[in-house]
Structure prediction request, 281 residues.
Amino acid sequence: MSNPQRSVAERIASEYYDSTDADRFYEEVWGGEDIHIGLYASETEAIAQASQRTVSALMDLMGALSPGATVVDFGSGYGGAARRLAKELGVRVEAINISAVENSRHRQLNQSAKLQDQIRVHDASFEDVPLAASFADVVWSQDAILHSGNRQQVLQEASRLLKPGGVFVLTDPMAADGIDTASLRAILERIHLPDMGSPDRYRAWAIQAGLSRDVWQEKTDMLIRHYSRVLEELQRREQELQAKISPDYLQRMAAGLGHWIDGGQKGRLSWGLMRFRKPLE
Prediction:
């Protein structure tokens, strides 16, 4: 059931990710427990393996954490990153996600991994996180904030949650700096929003929220490669997938992936790893 207090953007995102077609597609094709853009070692590398490399890269970027430290994951999906953080680093993870379907599977996978005591899954928006200020050592997000209708508010929430000296590490598909919104019409129609973030916008929003960006690793070629790999897998397995996923969804997904690939190749999109830091008081 939808939450009447959610914004239009939040309702659209939750309804999409709660749909049976989307759930099956992301589980079958996009990487299983990780449904974000991967860092590829080759053009034919498995999507799930490349996705794991992105998690590793963000873990390196956030720096050393003591066991028992707290990470808040914005847009946690099925919880692949949350489980790695909990298992490998011994941290506690507060997972914030608006999809009830994803959250249900996330909790089941946590139980199976015996990590339910370290990971708490919240049916909540990262625009309004139900946690106290100065709660987190790290805020983490992978390719989720593009779905927000108020990305500046998301940066404000990250800043509010972080302890002094804490960091916010993220990836997000963005418009390239200086790109006219009209050139992204096909992509914006797919995510049902009027605009996207950009590297410069994120830096400005962070400053307004009291954070400073100290790392920006631009890797837009990985966005192009990732969407190309997902499209290749869809096309290769299309007949098999049609037994589980509606042909209409697969057709729309293929068209959407093509728009992302085209936008990246034409220099209209940007993607990479960012780190923002909250100053010590």
User: Anything to note?
Assistant: The longest strand covers residues 162-171.
